[in-house]
């Protein structure tokens, strides 16, 4: 029983169940709608199918909202049935679906399990983090890591700006990791990139840990940081706070840019 409850809490499983429940409701209504409409009007089958697709989209996103799923899941639930319907009437070759699946899998990999989608950061954020490091550590030699490093821009920027530091990035999705490796070689950057899950790392080895994850990942990140990070080291999160834990600093990176939340470890 506990195992089944744990499985149903996984967002990808929840998403499948939401779509199944919505589909069951739509199918239950479909025959009645068809019968009622056909008695009075000549039925346009394509229009009826489109109406059912919209009903599926609205119902699934409403169920996701009631379950308090992340907002990006609600949008996925809304557009997923519409996307399937559009592709079905466009007569797209099967090869297209295979290529799309492989690219999506390589880009997002375990997003459904980790609840951490691909979030690229921006130059204003890189500069704000660099300023923080310069202020806190000046010319001290550091070991810095970006967990969820994406295409590697943050790590390469820091490596270029602070040549005395060891700057690393770890990324769980194969495609962004591969692109970061190739870009680092092309730019002759000293930043090092690893394919893997940051949870397998020992944070004790790092002076600064930078994260741009998701609200769902923050409690576990804080637990790991408090267990492993050394005194005086910095945990930096872009945009996402840690519930009930006040940051040491809040840094505004720009007028329309997200904030940096900084915790100095005791």
Commentary on this structure:
The two termini are 40 Å apart. The protein folds into two domains: 2-92, no CATH class; 123-264, 3-Layer(aba) Sandwich (Rossmann fold). The protein contains ten helices and seven strands. A seven-stranded mixed beta sheet has the order 3-2-1-4-5-7-6, covered by helices on one side. The chain is α/β, with parallel strands linked by helices and 266 residues long.
Essential attributes:
266 residues; alpha/beta; Rossmann fold; seven-stranded mixed sheet; 10 helices; 55% helix; elongated; disordered N terminus
Please summarize what this structure is:
The protein is of the alpha/beta class. It has helices spanning 2-8, 11-38, 45-66, 71-90, 94-108, 111-114, 123-137, 153-161, 174-187, 218-228; strands spanning 143-147, 166-171, 192-195, 208-211, 234-238, 249-252, 259-264. It has a seven-stranded mixed beta sheet with strand order 3-2-1-4-5-7-6, covered by helices on one side.
């Amino acid at each position: 029983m506990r195992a089944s409850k744990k499985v149903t809490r996984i967002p990808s499983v929840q998403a499948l169940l939401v779509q199944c429940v919505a589909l069951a409701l739509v199918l239950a209504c479909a025959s009645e709608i068809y019968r009622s409409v056909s008695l009075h009007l000549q039925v346009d089958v394509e229009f009826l199918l489109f109406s059912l697709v919209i009903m599926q989209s609205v119902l699934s996103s409403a169920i996701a909202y009631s379950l308090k799923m992340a907002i990006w899941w609600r949008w996925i639930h809304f557009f997923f049935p519409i996307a399937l319907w559009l592709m079905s009437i466009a007569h797209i070759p099967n090869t297209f679906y295979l290529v799309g699946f492989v690219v999506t899998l390589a880009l997002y990999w375990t997003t459904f399990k980790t609840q951490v989608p691909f979030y690229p950061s921006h130059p204003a954020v890189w500069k704000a983090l660099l300023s923080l490091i310069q202020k806190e550590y000046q010319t001290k030699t550091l070991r810095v890591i970006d967990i969820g490093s994406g295409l590697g821009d943050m790590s390469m920027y820091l490596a270029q700006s602070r040549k005395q530091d060891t700057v690393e990035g770890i990324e769980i999705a194969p495609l962004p990791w591969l692109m970061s490796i190739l870009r680092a070689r092309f730019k002759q950057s000293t930043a090092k990139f690893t394919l893997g899950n940051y949870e397998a790392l020992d944070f004790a080895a790092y002076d600064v840990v930078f994260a741009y994850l998701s609200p769902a990942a923050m409690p576990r990140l804080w637990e790991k940081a408090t267990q492993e990070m050394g005194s005086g080291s910095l945990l930096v999160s872009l945009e996402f706070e840690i519930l009930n834990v006040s940051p040491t600093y809040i840094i505004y990176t720009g007028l329309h840019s997200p904030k940096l939340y900084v915790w100095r470890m005791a």
